[in-house]
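Retro notes (design track)

What went well: tokenization of the new backbones is finally stable.
What didn't: we kept losing track of which sequence belonged to which structure.
Fix going forward: every design gets posted as structure first, then sequence, in one message. First example under the new rule, 371 residues:
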């Protein structure tokens, strides 16, 4: 006798199939797989000043520390210019100090002595003039002799006035405007020294960070222009793989998510990674990205930093495969994995609510099921 399955049993089996399918779908798609290229932060280092390369102290592959001198230009002319500028600054600064100090005691004494001598000469000329007037009035001296005596008196008075003005200038010292002009000359000379020293500093390339020299563009004896690359410095601690994630899966990628990185050169090695950047603007899939999806869809760039490669096995430019552990989206209820199932009302006269996975059993050998 063949077992028969009633309408209720058939619907329950269908429901369990839907639940199993939904459960399997929940585990699928939890990982993002993509391919990209290893990139690294690099800096092209050059001189800010033109000149002839005198020395390049590193070669390709050499590790450097921050502050190390990597290359130098010829500096003979600039060093001579700097020496002349410093000498000129010394001259104008000494002159300013002299002016600010005022007159020396000897200069003051000399000016006062000149005033006394001029005053005595004036007094002598005044006495001679008075005597000449008396003689002229008595008819013993000519008019011409009197005028000569008066002229000598006027000259003596003028000499006394000049001596007193000179003493006042010596006591007062330089004018404020003269001091201001001299201070400006000092600043100008100091600026010339600073400028020449700055140009001299531009003839040296100093490592801006710890890194690895990847390219040596110039050799000693070559003429370089300002900004021309001389060395390329790589930061080995800042390497990453740039991948692209479809927009419908971007919500599962979070900053800080763990990642696995594999390269063809080391097929048995898995390198740890971490998501450090998720693009905010969509773009079309770049042509150089190898992916199984359509290339015309919108994607977002994602940077995965390489964490555990102190041996520098993952080199810039290598293709790499990346697997991201996605952050699961919050479930809104319903079937597992966010899936939902909708049952249409059956024409059977046995309507019933959608059963859960534990509310029924499979039919027994006779085809009967629990009521």
């Amino acid at each position: 006798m063949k077992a028969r399955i009633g309408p209720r049993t058939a619907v329950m089996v269908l429901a369990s199939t839907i639940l199993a399918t939904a459960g399997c779908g929940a585990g699928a798609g939890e990982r993002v797989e993509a391919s990209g290229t290893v990139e690294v932060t690099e800096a092209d280092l050059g001189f800010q000043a033109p000149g002839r390369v005198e020395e390049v102290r590193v070669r390709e592959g050499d590790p450097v520390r921050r502050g190390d001198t990597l290359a130098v230009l010829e500096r003979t002319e600039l060093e001579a210019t700097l020496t002349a500028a410093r000498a000129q600054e010394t001259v104008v600064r000494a002159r300013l100090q002299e002016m600010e100090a005022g007159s020396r005691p000897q200069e003051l004494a000399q000016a006062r002595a000149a005033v006394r001598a001029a005053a005595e000469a004036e007094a002598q000329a005044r006495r001679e003039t008075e005597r000449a007037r008396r003689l002229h009035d008595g008819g013993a001296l000519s008019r011409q002799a009197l005028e000569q005596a008066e002229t000598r008196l006027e000259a003596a008075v003028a000499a006394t006035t000049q001596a007193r003005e000179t003493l006042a200038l010596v006591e007062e010292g330089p004018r404020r405007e003269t001091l201001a002009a001299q201070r400006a000359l000092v600043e100008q000379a100091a600026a010339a020294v600073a400028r020449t020293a700055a140009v001299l500093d531009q003839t040296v390339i100093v490592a801006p960070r710890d890194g690895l020299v990847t390219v040596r563009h110039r050799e000693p004896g070559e003429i370089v222009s300002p900004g021309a690359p001389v060395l390329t410095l790589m930061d080995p601690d800042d390497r990453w793989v740039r991948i692209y994630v479809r927009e419908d899966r971007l919500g599962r990628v979070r900053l800080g998510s763990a990642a696995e990185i594999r390269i063809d050169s080391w097929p048995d090695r898995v390198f740890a990674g971490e998501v450090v950047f998720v693009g905010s603007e969509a773009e079309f899939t770049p042509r150089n990205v190898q992916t199984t999806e359509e290339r015309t869809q919108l994607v977002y760039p994602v940077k995965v930093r390489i964490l555990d490669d102190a041996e520098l096995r993952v080199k810039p430019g290598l293709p790499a495969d990346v697997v991201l552990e996605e952050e699961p989206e919050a479930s809104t209820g319903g079937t597992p994995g966010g899936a939902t199932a909708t049952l249409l009302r059956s024409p059977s006269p046995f309507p019933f609510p959608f059963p859960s996975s534990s509310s029924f059993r499979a039919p027994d050998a006779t085809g009967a099921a629990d009521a």
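Added context from the reviewer: Helices lie at 7-27, 76-101, 105-137, 143-172, 176-201.
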